[in-house]
Automatic annotation (TrEMBL):
Family: Belongs to the PurH family.
Protein EC: 2.1.2.3, 3.5.4.10
Keywords annotated in UniProt: Hydrolase, Multifunctional enzyme, Purine biosynthesis, Transferase
Protein name from the UniProt record: Bifunctional purine biosynthesis protein PurH
HAMAP family hit by this protein: PurH
Length: 515
């Protein structure tokens, strides 16, 4: 078999003229629709209008142009089926051997700010996916190209043997069904959101590959990095890598964790993360000061860590960063000097993410967590506490400085694996107890780490204290202020301990479990 007739109908016209010119030179007859055929004709590529094939005009603003039996018989006929061949002959129909289609730009349309609903709907392509699906189903005989990146390969095969190989046609068909499935998923998602129903009876998300990863969490696990179409520009998926080796699976998870925390802060802040938990968080008047604090919070754990800053990294900060081994530094930018200093280090990865605002931390999105055989989906935890709504439950109110440290600790504890206890003093974390199976255990780790710095520190607990024991331990370590959700049947026990020791305790009324 050889490709004799192609149907070309593309919204994205890049590369189409050269491709069709070559096909035409190889003896392929080109049929085309409205704008595509106008372009081809203008560029001197011989082309037959679709209406000459269907005997029907392109009507309704392009809503109906290729949706015609003359097209779909040509695409779907099983060439070695005598009955199909006879029907084609009797009806005077011709085969179509190659379909080149890309679809109305639905994603780009809904990405426009304040796009009108009607405009979005008009950009749902119907004729295109229909042709793609017909051709892909009949890939035993028909080639189908949805991606301009495949033009060269198809040309090469047609040049060599008059047709594509069956293996190529299978690959092209599989790509088509992934493409139309993703296209429909995006439409379904858009409509679900318009209807205020983001968790409907079928969850049809679609993701596109950013890159293959060398391996997953461990070297024997395969992995890849995907992004949601239209992912926000303040997410890690939009980060630009300025330097260093390619990101690993663990890097991506850790950098994402660091990013979520640093987005909590308005003031210059630096977050160091290890194994998805913060090991040091600091805020200060400058990124330099914030990094010093994040570093001093836990100079041991930061080694080999991921650092995220919410301000441009300057030369002074870079000079400190270069002194230890760090996997990643993520920031809204780097000064030229800072870049010069840091790029001398072969093993550090530098990521630039221009769009780092606290508003981003307040925008809810859906988080998907896989389980074996399924998944659970929830809104991201974007709750932030309003200081005016804190309930002081102890005899003593926190001082203004204590309140500041408590609110800082609360922002951090939200991002620490439960059970979580975070101690903060002097605008930096001084103790982080993460991922323990009981709350006393988490507090013990945080207090031990803080040592002398526990004295006068503020403590945040991601969930209520089931009894008074954690508070007793905190009080004995010298902690003077506590923030926690409250809501335990034994709250009174904790309040009593707090009052005994003169601790100021506030309830947020909101829990921040993170498993
Ligand atoms: N309605 C139809 O019969 C139809 N047939 C092809 N299309 C689309 O029209 C676009 C190309 O249009 P044009 O060649 O007029 O620039 C392609 O994205 C193609 O997928 C159609 N448009 C939408 O459904």
């Amino acid at each position: 078999m050889s490709i004799k007739r192609a149907l070309v109908s593309v919204s994205d016209k890049q590369g189409i003229v050269d491709f069709c010119r070559e096909l035409s030179a190889l003896g392929v007859e080109i049929i085309s629709t409205g704008g595509t055929s106008t372009l081809l004709a203008k560029e001197g590529v011989p082309v037959i209008g679709i209406s000459d094939v269907t005997g029907f005009p392109e009507i309704m603003d392009g809503r109906v142009k290729t949706l015609h039996p003359a097209v779909h018989t040509g695409l779907l006929a099983v060439r070695d089926n005598e009955e199909h061949t006879r029907q084609m002959r009797e009806l005077g129909l011709d085969y179509i051997d190659l379909v080149v289609v890309n679809l109305y730009p639905f994603a780009e349309t809904i990405a426009k700010p304040d796009v009108a609903y009607e405009e979005a709907i008009e950009n749902i392509d119907i004729g295109g996916p229909t042709m793609l699906r017909s051709a892909a189903k009949n890939h035993a005989f028909v080639s189908v190209v949805v991606d301009a990146g495949d033009y060269a390969k198809v040309l090469e095969e047609v040049r060599a043997g008059g047709d594509t190989t069956l293996e190529t046609r299978k690959q092209l068909a599989a790509k088509v069904f992934r493409h139309t499935a993703a296209y429909d998923a995006l439409i379904a998602d858009y409509l679900a959101n318009v209807l205020g129903d983001p968790l409907p009876e079928r969850y049809t998300v679609t993701y596109e590959k950013i890159q293959d990863l060398r391996y997953g969490e461990n070297p024997h696990q395969k992995a890849a990095f995907y992004r949601k179409p239209l992912a926000a520009l303040d997410t890690l998926t939009a980060a630009e890598q300025l330097h260093g080796k390619e990101l690993s699976y663990n890097n991506i998870n850790d950098a994402n964790a660091a990013l979520q925390i640093v987005k909590e802060f308005e003031e210059p802040a630096v977050v160091a993360v290890k194994h998805m938990n913060p090991c040091g968080v600091g805020v200060g008047a400058s990124v330099y000061e914030a990094y010093q604090k994040a570093y001093n919070a836990d100079p041991t754990s930061i080694f080999g860590g991921i650092v995220a800053a919410n301000r441009i990294i300057d030369a002074d900060t870079a000079n400190m960063l270069k002194d230890i081994f760090l996997e990643i530094v993520l920031a809204p930018g780097f000064t030229d000097e800072a870049l010069e200093i840091l790029t001398k280090k072969k093993n550090i990865r530098l990521l630039k993410l221009g769009n780092l605002s606290t508003a981003a931390a307040r925008k809810s999105s859906l988080i998907v967590t896989s389980i074996d055989g399924g998944m659970v989906v929830q809104e991201s935890d974007v709750h932030s506490v309003n200081p005016d709504e804190l309930q002081v439950v102890t005899d003593r109110k926190p001082t203004a400085e204590e309140l500041k440290q408590l609110l800082f600790a609360w922002k951090v504890v939200k991002h620490v694996k439960s059970n979580a206890i975070v101690l903060v003093a002097d605008n930096m974390t001084v103790g982080v107890g993460a991922g323990q199976m009981n709350r006393v255990g988490a507090a013990k780790i945080a207090i031990e780490q803080a040592g002398e710095k526990s004295k006068g520190a503020a403590l945040a607990s991601d969930a209520f204290f089931p009894m008074g024991d954690t508070l007793e331990m905190a009080a004995k370590a010298g902690i003077t202020a506590v923030i926690q959700p409250g809501g335990s049947i034994k709250d009174e026990e904790s309040i009593k301990v707090a009052n005994e020791y003169g601790i100021a305790m506030v309830f947020t009324g909101v829990r921040h479990f993170k498993h």
